[in-house]
Specification:
This protein is an alpha/beta fold. The chain contains nine helices and 15 strands. The model has no long low-confidence stretch (mean pLDDT 97). The longest helix has 20 residues.
Length: 335
Amino acid sequence: MTPRIRWGVLGCAGIAAKAVIPAIQSSRLGRVTAIASRDLDRATEMAVRFGIPKAHGSYEDLLADPEIDAIYNPLPNHLHVPLTIKALEHGKPVLCEKPIALDAAQAVELAAAQKAAGLPVAEAFMVRHHPQWKTARALVTEGRLGEVRAIQTIFSYYLDDPRNVRNQADIGGGGLFDVGCYAVNTARFLFGAEPLRAIALMERDPTFGTDRLTSGLLAFPEGRQLAFTCSTQLALTQKVTVLGTRARLEIPVPFNAPADAPTRVVLDDGRDLAGGGREEIAIAPVDQYREQADAFADAVLTGTPLEAGLDDSLANMKAIDALFRSAGSGRWEPL
């Protein structure tokens, strides 16, 4: 019988209910066996809904539960580092939602705790586990696009509910933390390199104080560039275009790829503007959250190294820090 890990979930976040808990419950290598909320009624409701055996009325009770092997942390951003460190202190590996921290200094603190504990910690960039992104990277590394020199990314949605954590500046809300981080992460993934400097333009909601519209440029080695726009108050849009000297690559649904429907990446050699050089590469349906859960569980069970550990998370946070600094200074900021 295939061994499985017993997951504990901190909180009742929307992403947990919508995507991650169902994915774990259908995964090969794990099951959610406990969930915690500071409101025991909420935890109990979620437990009944998803067939989770135990509900805890505090985070500490869940972390201390000896029948839990690993923790999923989807709490608001300001609780990512503190609760992940507490989980490590209880001997629990952690899959933590993005962003891993509120800044690079916090990420360094977490990395030190992870090293001391000797346990896996991963940032939940589920897109890294989807075959469409692996296909995109393969096309880039194989030279199908020629020299890849630019990536353009848009990720936006409209949300103006003041109760939503994404609209609360004091706990790490805002567009750059929530969705701009994907633009940074996937550009680093495709370029296989780290940015050198950053510049950003940021517009903040006058009531919430969060960045509701951010556009940024990251300068990578050899003149390569990421240009992106992210927003919490624009029409729902997701788009990635990768531009090379011989072809361009488009990922039509780059981040919230459906689990139950095929996706595709589109390669176009640019011979004309009518699609004469267009090639569609179909990707079979995949639940990227389930793939992420199984990859993490495999690391816990077998010691298999994580594809992206906290070194990768720290690099992402350094870029985000530089973008925030630039939005304040109005100039290019080094990483």
